[in-house]
Amino acid sequence: MVTRPVPSARADYRVFRTLQTRWADNDIYGHMNNVVHYALFDTAINGWLVEEKMLDFHKGDRVGLVVETGCRYYAEMAFPDMVTAGIRVARLGSSSVRYEIALFRNEDEMAAAEGHFVHVYVDARSRRPKPLNAPLRTLLETALVPEAAQ
């Protein structure tokens, strides 16, 4: 018998961003479509990096390309829910990072969905891997929870 994983709690995450669902996020079944979860993950991570001045997609010398992603769904969400995205870093490499994100519906303490992205940071022009610079590594270390890796 396969046991279903238990969703994470808010306390398991280090960084939080509040995101508003939109009317267009609902699908024919009356809940948030699965592709929206990935858009919220991406918005949460990139919003955090932009806010911390670690990502400048117009003038920056490096970008994070997604090389792996996944999501596990636990509970439905729908417009007009407010979503809090919890972010943690599970692994830091020389040019890569595994971000883990949980989406919490309204004031719920347990995640409605959990996902991950592995970004490989590359030179913005050549697209060749480029080591994380010291300021980015320092920021990512503030969210590092190595035991979180699944």
Annotation keywords:
150 residues, alpha+beta, Thiol Ester Dehydrase, Chain A, 2 helices, 33% strand, globular
Textual characterization of the structure:
The chain has a five-stranded antiparallel β-sheet with strand order 1-3-4-5-2. The protein has one domain: Hotdog Thioesterase (Thiol Ester Dehydrase, Chain A, Roll), CATH 3.10.129. The longest helix is centred in the first third of the chain and has 18 residues, at 34-51. It has 150 residues and is an alpha+beta fold. Strand 3 (82-92) and strand 4 (96-105) form a beta hairpin. The chain is built from two helices and five strands.
Number of strand elements: 5
H/E element sequence: EHEEEEH
CATH class: Alpha Beta
Biggest sheet, open or closed, and with what strands and sense?
Answer: 5 strands, antiparallel
Task: Using the 3D structure, state the CATH architecture.
Answer: Roll
As residue ranges, the low-confidence spans are: none
* Silhouette: globular
What CATH calls the topology is: Thiol Ester Dehydrase, Chain A
Radius of gyration: 16 Å
The largest beta-sheet arranges its strands as 1-3-4-5-2
CATH superfamily: Hotdog Thioesterase
Q: Beta-strand percentage?
A: 25-35%
Q: Structural class from helices and strands?
A: alpha+beta
